Amino acid sequence: MSNPAPDVCTPAEETPDPSIARAERRLRLLEELSEIGMELARALKPGAQADKTAADKAHGKDPAAAFAPLSRAIRLTLALEAKTCEALRDLKAGVVRAREEEHVKAVARATAADDEATYASWTKVWDAVTTVARAEIEDGEAYEDLLEALDERLEEDEAYEDYDERPLRETVERLCKDLQLTPDWSRWDGDGWEAGYAPPRPRCSPFNQPSRITVLRPPYRSPAKTPVPFQSVHALE
């Protein structure tokens, strides 16, 4: 008996999914049955040289009478084989879709983790540089300009494309040099500035000036009340 030709539904490698494994086994059995049926049918062909097993099965029967049920059995086997192949294809497609969905979810989780790590690095760099700016810059407009320049460096400057992969101090030193800041590196404690290096608010903040009245807007004044002239009861009559 010749080996069945490989079918497109037979997977190139085994899959751990049990439903697919069972469907593949049924398909192999049906392929074998259809091949056996075809060999028996060929043995009934006039003048054919069938092997001994096929000849014994057909001995004593009219070839035409034996061929009818055999042909029906082959057709049913082939139809069942086609249905099994289709079901196997659907199973594989479902597994592929599930694996693709899981891959998408894994990529999303990895991307979220990367984004979170990048944001954490950005926050450390931003806080370290703005700490120096708060300690040095006394002009409000100059302070705002520096913040915009810092944002531009981190977003546009090729030198900072991999800042989240480099040591924090290396990035902060480069930014301070590019932004013309001169920090006191003796106040750096390894992973940032030591407490108290910069004031709680920028040196340029108008709130550094003690005041009992509002600093940024005119003090609130309640409108003066207009006195109501006195009128006697008789005057109203």
Description:
With 237 residues, this protein is mainly α. Helix content is 59%, strand content 0%. The protein is built from six helices and no strands. Helix 1 runs antiparallel to helix 3 (63-136) and helix 3 crosses helix 5. The model has no long low-confidence stretch (mean pLDDT 75).
The SSE order reads HHHHHH
Number of strands: 0
Please state the CA-atom Rg, rounded to the nearest Å: 44 Å
What overall geometry do the principal axes of the alpha carbons give? elongated
Beta percentage is under 5%
Measured as a percent range, the helix fraction is 55-70%
* Span of the ends, CA to CA: 131 Å
Structural class: mainly alpha
How many structural domains does the protein architecture include?
Answer: 2
Describe the main β-sheet briefly.
none
Total helical segments: 6
Unreliable runs: none
What's the multimeric state?
Answer: single chain
How confident is the prediction overall: mean pLDDT? 75
Summarize the structure.
The chain is an all-alpha fold. 59% of the residues lie in helices and 0% in strands.
Notable traits:
single chain; 237 residues; mainly alpha; 6 helices
Task: List the topology elements.
Blueprint: H1 18-43, H2 52-58, H3 63-136, H4 140-156, H5 168-178, H6 233-236
Helix pairs in contact: 1-3, 3-4, 3-5
